[in-house]
Predict the 3D structure of the following.
Amino acid sequence: MKLSISEDIPNLNSVAMMLDQKLRKRFEPYFTLAPSADIAIAAAVLTPDVKTDWVEALQDTLPDLTEERINNRVIKSIREALTKNNHALEAISKRLGCPPRQRSKYDFKRAGNGQDTNATASAPQSVDVRAAIANQYYSYLNDQSMTDSTWDRYPLLKEAFVKFNTPLPSSAPVERLFSFAGIINSPRRGSLTDFSFEKFVLMKANSKWL
């Protein structure tokens, strides 16, 4: 934004303004903290040097934003990440003293009352899992330690931290995406919008799972 009003480069003001608009549009979910940004929020909060220090800076543009809302979203993201991981779920179950749910291949609702018996039986476990995560999470927020040993005290958060903050060890996946982008960006598809182009590239990259 400062470049667009700078008098030092008047010939580039319009270019800088357009670039600013494109960046704001592209990263709008992160600026407005849309639901699609939940993983990015969790990744930031689970960084000991950062935690929730950034929340106050966004309250000028998002007056309804509170730390408690952020905390609830982070806990939800951690719970979803851990329960999707069978190994993490088994570890949580052992710490909570309850066996993980063994879902039957034939998981039907009980005739007459429309209730899923397996889901009903597993409800207390879900509450316990969230409570265990929340307990470690709020202890972590109040912990002033910023060393690697911090995660030894919060094993459940450590699992989520590794998942959300581990960078790709190789540039090969990114290079493959550029290759797919070159295939999609052909003269016959010159009228694609940014949104459609991105979706086509992701579909091409993930075609073997579709």
Residues 74 and 165 are 14 Å apart (CA to CA). Confidence is low (pLDDT under 50) at residues 104-112, 116-127. Residues 172-209 form one domain.
